[in-house]
Amino acid sequence: MAYHSLSFFALFVPAVLIAYTLTPVRFRYLTLLAANYLFFYTWSKGILIYNLLCVAITYLSAQKLAGMRKAPKGADRKLFKKKKKRILACTILCNLLILLVLKYTNFFGETICTAAGREWQTLHILMPIGISYYTLQSISYLADTASGKVIPDRNIAKLALYLSFFPILVEGPICRYSEIGEDLSSGREITYHNLTQGYQRILWGLFKKMTIADYLAIAVDQIFANYDHIGSICLFGAVLYTIQLYCDFSGTIDVVIGTAKLFGVVLPENFRQPFFAKDAGDFWRRWHMTLGAFFRDYIFYPVSLSAPVMKITKWAKTHGSKTLARLIGPLIALFCVWSCNGLWHGAAWTYIMYGMYYFVILAVEMIIKEPSEHLYDRLHIRKDSKALRIFRFVKLMVIIVLGEMLFRAESVSQFTAMFTNIFTHWDGAAFRTTYTMLGIGRMEYLVTAFGFMIVIIMDILKETGYPIRRTVEKMPAAVRWAFWYTAILYVIFFGAYGPGFNAAAMMYAAF
Amino acid sequence: MIVGLLSFAVRPQYDVYDLAESANATKRVLRNPENTVDVLFAGDSEAGYGFAPLMYWRDHGISAENIGYPNERLGDTYAMLKTIYDKQKVKLLVLETDSFFADARVFANDDAVLEKAEELIPLLHYHKVWKFLKPEGITRGEGDKNSNKGYWLRRGVKPYTGRKDYISVNSSRDEEISAEAKTYLSDILSLCSENGTEVLIVTAPGPAYWTKQRNTLVTEWCRENGLTYVDMNYYNDEIGFDWSKDTMDSGAHMNHEGCAKMNLWFADYLMKYYSLPDHRGDKRYQSWQDDYEFLRGTY
What we know:
Structural class of chain B: alpha/beta
Shape of chain A: globular
Structural class of chain A: mainly alpha
Number of helices of chain B: 12
Largest sheet of chain A: none
Mean pLDDT of chain B: 90
Helix content of chain A: over 70%
Low-confidence stretches of chain B: none
Oligomer: heterodimer
Order of helices and strands of chain B: HHEHHEHEHHHEHEHHH
Largest interface: A-B, 30 and 37 residues
Distance between the termini of chain A: 17 Å
Order of helices and strands of chain A: HHHHHHHHHHHHHHHHHHHHH
Largest sheet of chain B: 5 strands, parallel
């Protein structure tokens, strides 16, 4: 049951809303929990047992860690801290092991066997939906419990609710328990305000996914499937994919956030106008923000402040230079983050290379930041000058589009071939005859172009702080209703669904 | 109420599965002068990607159109024929069999909720009505089906790596021609009979979906209805197929090179068993000549 399917937002969600409203307040979290596992079952059937296992392991460990907030009197504090860390590490490893076995066995097996000159027999392992997401949530829950940020509830059902909340199960956002735990279990009233805001957000998400992303998916699939004989159209494919990915992922997140809002649960945002970023580092603070925040808080900072890295930093200060000492810790931490980021996205070399791609870019940005600023000062270039902003924008777009081409490619060799084709088989004229042979016609291109223009305008308004929602709410009732009816009819008319379309799966559901 | 009104406005005279494609195909056929289309190729993507009318024109002056397209339902074929017969007295309908085994219902959808919703609110089914506000094929070229008389030309090679002797294999797949499919087929045969059109049932070459059971079911159905059936999978060697080169998707569909071989063979078959006049030189059939001239390098 995909989030953009009629079954979900017109049948399942209203049914859950009705059941939730009819349930007494103190038991509403159980209604949500039942809905979660019903939704989970529609995706993964019996293998939802892995989620239950994750819940059980996390619950037991969290209860133990909660009891270890303060060292008992007379106990060795260092030893006590070590024991706590060991419990935390073991539990995290347990949950990670489930993820690693289910998601990465075939990848690592094939890699090792290929290196050893042997053949790997692919295992058919069924992976439950959302495992990458709820595993990270369980890690954050445990880490926050250990640090005292979260006081775990004795009620295991509330933890299960957090680790299986159906709107966020498939594509995130990755939420901290402190962000949504209270909202989830308090049985908030369904209000008119939440219903309208929630469904408006769902509509916006459907607009992006169904009238832009799902059309582009058809052309992108054609381009990437035929990359070896379409020359420089590969560049067109990479650009389309970048737009598709943004509209698909952010659109689905809008549906998710809107759905949660219906129940009074406020989820964190996952996108903040990423194409307005100043550089790659800023881009990743605006794109898939909750994943970035997770890696920052649970990998970057702990690695940077870890004893081994502090030792290396000290060594660099003594034997190297101030600059080296300043950079080496963050670079090591950055490497860890992007190795994990790449691997988290999938069990394939393209994802690992994607992680390394951004590691190198971000590392370079980090290293040249100060020298660049000195250079601008020397050349009397204002940092907010138009020319510099255009240069930065173009540079960023090139980085993003190439990165997404790598992300979408089936293999590193495909990416290399596509990248080479752009330069060695450049044929602008071919574009005019080829673009309508990619499975979508001129009208679909017009619809997606119009839709993407609306998305960019909305992003500009949000970036400048324009109060979009308040502006719409202040409209006269007749105008407001006409606006929303037009929006609904637009999605009905121009959405990519029904005859002639295979429903384009939610892209981040595979991770 | 608005949705109801719009549903009424967009619903076509005959219900179809894919409004945009069926409307496009019908419009293209009806653009030809009256009673000039002698042969119609129909069916799903096996027909759409398989039959190249301009090859029949090039070699024999046969005026053919291809109204096949991916996921074409038998209901769509019937609806298109109903409209086409207003202006064209088609001599021969070549009907590809893959659509016999697909869901024949025009409102069928993988999403059961959407399927029911489409039946209740036809606007959800026919929402793509905007697609033909601007006619397709403005960009003329070999990849444009309207420039190719409905043929969906595709290049590219993705070899079929299965058994070469696939026609000798009994597949374990359960096959059936559904009751809905048989109803539509019966309607199509009646319509053709009323309009003096001969019907030839064919299975285009394609090891990916072919099964012996399908061949048996179609053979039986054709025998019951007194129809000729040509399963081209039995003529691979005669046609000269090389499944390592002549397919674009591992044996599901032929590519242009594979189609060229198949259409050469099939054109000879048609000339041998059917009286199809040679219209080359006749100004009424200029659109075939014009399209052929425009894409001469392709053919």
